Structure formats: C-alpha cells, structure tokens
Amino acid sequence: MDKHSIETIELEMAVLFRRLTSITTFKKIGNLDRAAYLLLHHIASREGTAGIKAISDEFQLDISTVSRQAASLESKGYITRVPDPVDGRAYSLQITETGKASLEENRQVRQEMIEQLLKGWSEEEGQLFGELLRKFNATFLGEG
Amino acid sequence: MDKHSIETIELEMAVLFRRLTSITTFKKIGNLDRAAYLLLHHIASREGTAGIKAISDEFQLDISTVSRQAASLESKGYITRVPDPVDGRAYSLQITETGKASLEENRQVRQEMIEQLLKGWSEEEGQLFGELLRKFNATFLGEG
DNA sequence: GTATATACTTGTATTATACAAGTGGAAAGA
DNA sequence: TCTTTCCACTTGTATAATACAAGTATATAC
Question: How far is B1 from chain A, CA to nearest CA, in Å?
C-alpha cells in the first residue's frame, strides 16, 4: 500500500474521530444516546434473542459496558429482559414497540444528518464511501 | 443520493466510532494521548504561530478543551508557549525538538497500525478511502 | 477612566469505556 | 450429595475528551 494513502487515512481517521466525539458527546441525537443506539439496532435486527454476553462478544466491548447500556434501554422501556427459562443467570433482550418507534425515529434523524452532509456528493462517491467504511470496520474483526 | 448508501454510511459511521472509542480510550498510542496528537500535528505543520483561540476555531472545539490539551503538551515539554510581544493576553504555540521527535514516533506507530489493518486492500481502494475520508471531514467545515 | 470585549485558565458535569470485585445460579468432580 | 469451580450479569471506581460557566488579566472603545 502506498505510503501517501496510509498517511492520509491515518490523519483523516484521527480528525474524523475528534469531530464525531465533539458532535455526539453533548448532543443526543433524538432520544437515544449514541451508545444505546447501536445496541438497540442490534437487538432489533436480531429478532431479540441474545444475552448480554453474546452481544458484548460481537461488539468487542466489555460485558459491563453492554450491561449498563442494556439497563439504560430497559429503564426507558425500549427493551425488556426476558429471563432464560433454562439458565437462571441469563436473559434475552427483546425490543418493545416503544423501542422500535424510538429506533426508527432516531435512524431517520441520523440519516437526514448524513444526507445533509453528503449534499454535494455524487451517487458513486456515496456508494463507494459506504462500502469502504463497511470494509474498514470489518478489518477490525479479522484479528480477533 | 441513494437511500441505501445513506443507510450504510449512517450505520457504519456509528460502528466505526464505537470501535475507535474502544481502541483509543485506554491505550495510548505511543506517548501521546489521542487528543494531543492532532494538536501537536497542527502546530508542527503550521510552523507554530497560532494561539489557543485560533486553533480552537479551526478545530471547532471549545477554547477550554484546546487550552487543556496545550497545557498537557507543554507540561511534557513538547511545545512552548511564546508570549505575544504585542498582546499581553496571547501566546503562540511552538513545537520543540522533543515534540517533533514524539510526533514523528507517534505518527509511525499509527501508520503501522493502519497499514496492518489494510493488509489485504488494493492500492486503489486505499487511495479512494483516504480521499473520501478527507472529503467527508471537509463537509463538516462547510456548514460553519 | 470606566465599561466592554477578548485570550486564556480553571471548576464542574457528562459520556462511553475498561478493569475489578461482588452476587447468585450452573456444571463438574469427589 | 456436596463442594468447588465456572459463568452471566451487576455495580464500584477510574479514565479521557469534551462543553459550559465563572474567573483573571489584558486590550480596546467610548
């Protein structure tokens, strides 16, 4: 890989991170905080049968982190914790109707934000950027 | 812009942010914390004549945030604050030799990390990703 | 010469994260 | 069976980067 491309990615990644931090730290987008959004999204698309442990593995986050996020979502009524009938220690997390509505509303706001940012972009650029982002994120999983 | 591309970018951006947060929060890269790196980089490439205020404007960060980052860099001996001869309130920040060395070392480590992640990527993909990232970051500045 | 504006610092709060210790149920070995 | 070890989860504590608000000292304007 060309040195110049590496340099650019390295620097721009740092800039992007700083910008995202600044934007998201104090402004909740909609009614979900940034962390809970991805958790809710995950639960919604998984049809709801996963416990804290499984999710923290997939997210590569500490269990305690996911535990708190789940507690936060539950306190807002966005998910319910259904006790596992077999294993008394475990739960499965399921999204509620309120949760679904909130997720949808949130997603919309976020997408509008992205859309606004990409106003001047061509169709091709947008598609490429999305795919490269996805590919980049996937590289993190490769290492274990 | 196609709805699908927007969706992808929105989701992958959130995932990327979570991952970067997790990676960078507890592991300093080299001997600089993540925030100070960009400040030092900026000071280095600007040949050193900018004050806290000017930098915070460019970075779109609060003055207090940049003030603390600068104090941190100064305490490590990476920058010096030269009092403005005309304006008694103002300083200009200049990188020291130690600072230059630290920046360079840090940059190297970061670039190796990126290089490692992009091992399987083609030349073209890397170049495109870098340029699209840069373009995306630039969109934030457009709005003011 | 007083009032206002500006550059910067410092106090305090917030967020998402990790690590460590604790709780209570499950599984395995004697 | 019962004791030990393991596992899912929760809770306490620390950390880092940010913002807002209040404070300090200097500059500028009237």
Answer: 5
